[in-house]
Design a protein that fits this description.
Number of domains: 2
CATH class of the largest domain: Alpha Beta
Low-confidence stretches: none
Mean pLDDT: 97
Order of helices and strands: HHEHEHEEEEEHHHEEHHEH
Strand order of the largest sheet: 1-7-6-5-4-2-3
Radius of gyration: 20 Å
CATH architecture of the largest domain: 3-Layer(aba) Sandwich
CATH topology of the largest domain: Aspartate Aminotransferase, domain 2
Bound molecules: pyridoxal-5'-phosphate
Distance between the termini: 22 Å
Number of strands: 10
Number of helices: 10
């Protein structure tokens, strides 16, 4: 499903030179490499400013803090996403309100949002790389851009965005890393302070938008790795899109494809199948790995028990059918054809 070591081989000379330069410079926290990464990564995702963080989860947490989200607030999150989307809300002391997804796609359903008086924000997850537009809401939208690297154009609702550079992402670091994105210079300054112990100057620590800061910095080694990978991103997207087009053309008829927007950079290629465990066994017997993204609605996660959720029937169905197939840039067109053939003419 991912091959970070194989990917490293393809860009090794550049990555290793960048890392070595940092090691020899002695600037391991902050410094010019981090500043360059901040600028270039923000631009890549289509935003004016960014504050680098040490994970995508922290990027979400600081996005929420910069919006002033805290205890007593509710934040709407989609039922189908990685746990961190809701976990970040709980971590800032607010209530994650899990909302069911659309019929056609596992994206938050704009027509059925559980908006209430205490709703402070909505998190739009552009899941798998599919844009999730939420225009005209009465509250700010946080864009969870963890799965959107390489999208053209990048999805954006516009208030604040959070990206993960987890190693298996299309643009991944050699460890944990993330960035919070904004077009507002004041919010950028707030984010930089929040992620640096709320320090406007050395050893002065202030609350920022009501919150106490902490350390969530992307280190210079990760910044160097990401800068080296950035130039390779367009080529990755070309391969991923070609692999996805091959799946579209060759999947057996009983495998249901998801609609895919033209901007999609195919972080994941996910289909819906009956008898999913049997399909997984069939593929495993043919030497093919696959994954369940995601195996359960967030409403069913033990960590979120006790928060108020409406039922999420569409998400529940999606989560029993969803199967992600290998699509990354280390997978060849012939391998995609092989996988399509191994799925067989009828479900197991
Ligand atoms: C949709 C989504 N949100 C948030 C995250 C959290 O990012 P990280 O693992 O970098 O903390 C991830 C990735 O893991 C993700 O896929």
């Amino acid at each position: 499903m991912a091959d970070p070591a194989g990917r490293h081989q393809r860009v090794a000379a550049k990555v290793e030179a960048g890392v070595l330069e940092v090691l020899r410079s002695g600037r391991y926290v902050g410094g010019p490499v981090v500043d360059e990464a901040r600028r270039r990564l923000a631009a890549e995702f289509g935003w004016a400013y960014g504050a680098t963080t040490n994970s995508g989860t922290d990027a979400l947490i600081y996005a929420l803090l910069a919006l002033g989200v805290g205890p007593g607030d509710e934040v709407i999150v989609p039922a189908v996403t990685f746990f961190a989307t809701a976990g970040a809300v709980a971590r800032v002391g607010a209530v994650p309100v899990v909302a069911d997804v659309r019929e056609d796609l596992p994206l938050i359903d704009a027509s059925r949002l559980p908006l209430r008086a205490r709703t402070k924000a909505v998190i739009a997850v552009h899941l798998f790389g599919e844009p999730c537009p939420l225009p005209g809401l009465p509250v700010p939208v946080v864009d969870d851009l963890a799965q959107t690297a390489g999208a053209t154009p990048a999805p954006k609702n516009g208030t604040i965005g959070a990206v993960s550079f987890y190693p298996t992402k299309t643009l991944g670091a050699a460890g944990d890393a993330g960035i919070v994105l904004t077009d507002d210079p004041e919010t950028e300054q707030a984010l930089l302070r929040l992620t640096h112990h709320g320090m406007p100057s050395p050893y002065v620590h202030e609350r920022v938008r009501g919150a106490v800061g902490a350390n969530s910095r992307m280190d210079a080694i990760q910044a160097a790795v990401l800068l080296a990978h950035l130039d390779d991103l367009p080529a990755r997207v070309v391969t991923r899109r070609a692999n996805a087009a091959r799946y579209d053309a060759q999947l057996p008829a009983w495998v249901r494809r998801l609609p895919r927007h033209a901007s999609h950079a195919v972080h994941q290629y996910v289909v819906r199948v009956p008898a999913r465990d049997g399909v997984r066994q069939r593929l495993a017997a043919a030497g093919v790995e696959c994954a369940y993204f995601y195996p359960a609605s967030l409403a069913a996660q033990p960590a979120l028990v006790g928060f108020p959720h409406d039922p999420t029937p569409r998400a529940d169905t999606f989560c029993t059918e969803a199967l992600a197939l290998p699509v990354h840039e280390g997978v060849s067109l012939d391998e995609v054809s092989y996988i399509c053939a191994q799925l067989g003419a009828a479900p197991p």
